[in-house]
Amino acid sequence: MIGRLRGILVSKQPPSLLVEVGGVGYEVEAPMSTIYDLPGIGKEVILLTHHAVKEDAVTLYGFLHESERTLFRNLLKVSGIGAKIALAVLSGVSTDHFARLVQAGDVVALTRIPGIGKKTAERMVVELRDRLDGMSSVPGVSMSGVVAPLDAAGEATVALLQLGYKSAEVSRLVQKVAAEGDSAESIIRKALRAALGA
Questions:
Q1: 4-63 homologous superfamily
Q2: Among 41, 133, 161, 189, whose Cα sits 20 to 30 Å from the Cα of 171?
Q3: What is the rounded distance in angstroms from the CA atom of residue 42 to the CA atom of residue 7?
């Protein structure tokens, strides 16, 4: 397994990079978020890598930050998402912003990322929500701590999204049933009764 490369950046032709390490040139695929922050050609670069071995190919993916590599690996665990879409996600949105979108269940915003359709966005929300800790680029801050809802309505919204309700439906239900002073648990119960027509 190759987990890290330290060498000279020989070329960058997005999404491909060539990094020379000890006389050996490694071809690496990288998201635009990494490519934008690379030093100039001929300069030293350190990349964290994900080494993928398939029946017909061996590919290295490179990242400047651990949060990017962690998100990439988590995306690959979502059914129907391959490396190409995972790179598109990292190229289209920061790790922090992506984590906030997933926590909020914002399927519409996720579909604005190239290559992400509605069904894929919904799968991301369901499958990634619990895996976001440690994805923040701010050292020592977990994403769940950054985006945790502060009020009862926010907590109820997140809980209903996790139960599989659509974002628009959840917003409508919570606005309809939430009253001042209600606990999150009370709002959830009322929203579920309203959704079932009870």
A1: Nucleic acid-binding proteins (2.40.50.140)
A2: 133
A3: 9
